[in-house]
Each structure stands twice: as structure tokens, then as C-alpha cells.
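hey can u check if this looks right to u? its 130 residues, i copy pasted from the old doc so theres a chance i mangled smth
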Amino acid sequence: MTAEPVSLATALASFTQRWSPRIVTAVNDYDVRVAKVEGEHVWHVHDHTDEFFLVLDGELHIALREAGGERTVVLPAHSVFTVARGTEHKPFAPVPTQILVFEPTGTLSVGDRHDDVPDHVDATTGHALR
């Protein structure tokens, strides 16, 4: 947890890497992370936790593989969506996008199970904000 307010604009301006989240604060046992994203992430699953997304700027698409088949949700700026634990999903941003993600501390950005991780995706539990 931080002792001072954190400007999300300043936090996002402090790095350029895509798909490489920064931890801006913590709430109980959860990290609040911000990331710049563009292009495709990777199909992955979080077996033991839901994953909360808030689109700060841009547009995020999340492909989901569910019991009834595959679908994609589209999140414009200022939209939220929670991917339920155990749901295979793949985020994609057609334009440069900024997101906030809320998940348990130590959660790997590529989930517990995932496809091969491409070079442009950072498999991390989040980086400290500098």
C-alpha cells in the first residue's frame, strides 16, 4: 500500500513497454496494476482467481472460451469486465490502450496455464512503479 496518492497518468507515463504491468498500490492481498497494451496477449487461464479489467483509455477486446463456445467482449474506455476464474481468455487491443487490473498479489500475467508467450508479452507478477 502506498502512503501518498498515486497519479495514474504519472504512473502510465513512467514506462513504455506493452503488456508489462506496473503495481500502483495494494488493497488487502490484491495488487492494483496499470498497463499499456496493444495487439494480442496470449490465451491463458487463472485457475484460482477472477481477473478484473478497467479500460482507462482506448479499447480492449477479450476473447473468451466458455462452455457455450467462444465469444469476444469489447470494452470501450471507462468500461469494466471481470473474467471468471477458470475461463480461458485472450485480451487484444486494436489501438494503444491503457488498462487497470485488480488481482491477488503474485498472480502471473499469463495465468496458471497458457499458450507459448510471445516476445512482446511480459510474463510477470507485476513490476514495481518507479
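The chain has one helix and ten strands.
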